[in-house]
Amino acid sequence: MVFKFHRSGIAVAVLAAYALPAAAAVESKGEGPSRGKAELATVAVTAEAAGETATGPVKGYVVQRSAAGMKTDTPLIETPQSVSVITRDRIEDYGARSVNEALSYSAGVSTYGASSRSDWYTYVRGFSPNVYLDGLKLPVTKNAASWIVEPYLLERIELLRGPASVLYGQGDPGGTVNLVSKKPALKPVREIELGVGNHGHQRLGLDLGGAIDENGEWSYRLVGFGRSEDLPTGPHASDRVLLAPSLTWRPSAATRLTLQAGFLKDDTDSSDNFLPAQGTVLPNPNGKISRDLYTGDPGFSRYKKEQQWLGYQFEHRFDDALAFRQNLLLSKLDVDNNSVYGWGLSPLDPSRRTLFRLADIFNTSAERVSLDNQLEARFATGSVRHTLLAGLDYQQQKLDEVSRNIPRMMGLFAPLALDLFRPVYQPITADRFGPQTNKSEKQEQLGLYLQDQLSFGPRWTAVLGLRHDRADTHTDTTGASLNKAERDDSATTGRIGLVYQAGNGFAPYVGYSTSFLPYFQSNPDGSTFEPSRGKQYEAGVKYQPEGGRTSLTTAIWDLVQSNVLTGDPDALRAAAGYQVQTGKVRSRGFEVEAAAEVTRQIKLIASYTYQDVGNIEANGPAKDQRPTDVPTPRNIASLWGSYRFGQGVLNGLGFGLGARYVGSTQGARIDLATLRPADYKLDVPSYTLFDAAVYYETGPWRFAVNAQNLADEEYVSGCQSDRVCFYGKGRSVVATARYRW
């Protein structure tokens, strides 16, 4: 990977270069906690003694601590924002094969179904989530070329709802997903897992780790994974290979450095079948369109993705009150995509059986640098205890895309036109494609932030945060279209929150937070856009009795994003791709989520969300309607329970059962004359899905069978318009055998 820094990046890189040696020098001179004094490890080991840290593994379903909401090791009950943590046990019990599936029992999460190309047809409070790996941002691309994460790599998944720019910088206001990878540990990890399932599913997982030397100064982790399966439609398979080594060096109780690297390769085809509303949610005189219909091209369609990452996480504690952390992630993504997809019924066919298809070729390459420096100090001023966090972070992303497509009107004719009910696939060749477009985007962001967590006695906790960012964006498009745009933006974001711990496990809280998000897009004439802005008010009650294994959060929120792009009110300019920033989206609602280990055998997860997401300002008929580019059901509910026998002849046997309800959504009906929404009266029905699992553990062995959509319910997970509807995923059954030694 080759990354080039501008002057701001060089400055931060210099800081980074000096920080590690400086801390190491303090260590070698004995100016920090001594390696020979065991009592000085107290701060680092306290949470371990209690059985939990903010980033480590958690046994069971209930989590008490996280760093996602504060960037410090903080109890969830002291965080004035809604946070969910999906543990490794939950990921395994669900049988989740994607991050999307692992989040499906969490409040506020909706999805447009599964995709072989992306985890992120998932939305939080009506907005796309911001995605991080171990607290550092991953490459930001369009969904079809997005970074994908294999759940076998993960220790936990953290979901922070609402704006988080004060800690993480630019992002959408709905929520942030932090993916916590498996790390080296002193306790040995030796695991191999085999799996088979329907659709030809085969998998192999390997997880090894532990101390390298007797003193525990060095430890390692090696995660490997391979999977092959048939896609639910079409002739192609979906293959994945993952390898992720990591190494931790602990020269003393005060200093720790973890090096991480990884490689993931996907070789597949697009599973995104864009189908018309007539034949899915609306009647079609020819009948219902088959869920098994393949709308791609057997000889042309392909999707190849390679991901590489390299980074480190460094921490040095000068004493019990002062610590420095520095985290770095270099990530690289390459996508090679040939795709053919539906774009509604052909207006030339009155019989309503011919699909109008589009085809494109794109090659995307994205490189990202994410660097975060943190200085944490714990002290008191009188009776007030402080946890003060000062940070300086730098982010740089470079994205290059080469694309070609077949002119849209050619989709009405062979070989693109496809009979939906008796398909015949005619060859699609590269000579049919138009001229090439080259697009290059580069963005740098430098942010300085300060946060203070204040504790007023045993009951009251407050948090104050302030951040200032500078973001420089450059876009250059050549070839079939010409456009060049540059823009420098700056933004100040903040946060304030208050928590009262009543002493009986209940903790009411209130909070206010803001966000900003610069746009890469520009108008055809090169004019640029101001960043979108988000602000949210949130209030709720958390319940987590001391020493108990129950966690409950209820929240109400009111979130507004302004400066949203919407089509130019002039129809001709809109058809030419011009946009204006008069849009405003509002999301408000109520959610409740509970995790409970009722007994050692019974575990429960339950959630309910009511959300009202709408365009409160927009051009044309979109005003006062729900956005249709994301799924916005008003009601979402889920329940999961598991039971394990603890004694007798059934000792080691367990089972799980879950239900997921997603309310109705709406889509746009397109005016064929203008190709713009005419109205938003396309209704998509609600659906309920059932999941089940059976487990058996004996000695070092664990056997499991997981079934998702157990009843094989045929449903439409959403429609962006009457041209683009998605069938949801059918029944999936996977049996696994795991051996630990």
TrEMBL record:
Major localization class: membrane
Subcellular location, record wording: Cell outer membrane
Cleaved signal peptide residues: 1-24
Swiss-Prot/TrEMBL keywords: Cell outer membrane, Ion transport, Iron, Iron transport, Membrane, Receptor, Signal, TonB box, Transmembrane, Transmembrane beta strand, Transport
TonB-dependent receptor plug domain location: 76-176
UniProt xrefs under PROSITE patterns: TONB_DEPENDENT_REC_3
Annotated membrane topology: Multi-pass membrane protein
Pfam families membership: Plug, TonB_dep_Rec_b-barrel
Sequence ranges assigned to domain TonB-dependent receptor-like beta-barrel in this UniProt record: 249-710
InterPro entries for this protein: Beta-barrel_TonB, Beta-barrel_TonB_sf, Plug_dom, Plug_dom_sf, TonB-dep_rcpt-like, TonB_sidphr_rcpt
A GO biological-process term: siderophore transport
TM stretches of this protein: none
Single GO molecular function: siderophore uptake transmembrane transporter activity
Domain of life: Bacteria
NCBIfam families: TonB-siderophor
Family: Belongs to the TonB-dependent receptor family.
PANTHER family (UniProt xref): FERRICHROME IRON RECEPTOR-RELATED (PTHR32552), FERRICHROME OUTER MEMBRANE TRANSPORTER_PHAGE RECEPTOR (PTHR32552:SF68)
Name the record gives this protein: TonB-dependent siderophore receptor
Lineage per the UniProt record: Bacteria, Pseudomonadati, Pseudomonadota, Betaproteobacteria, Neisseriales
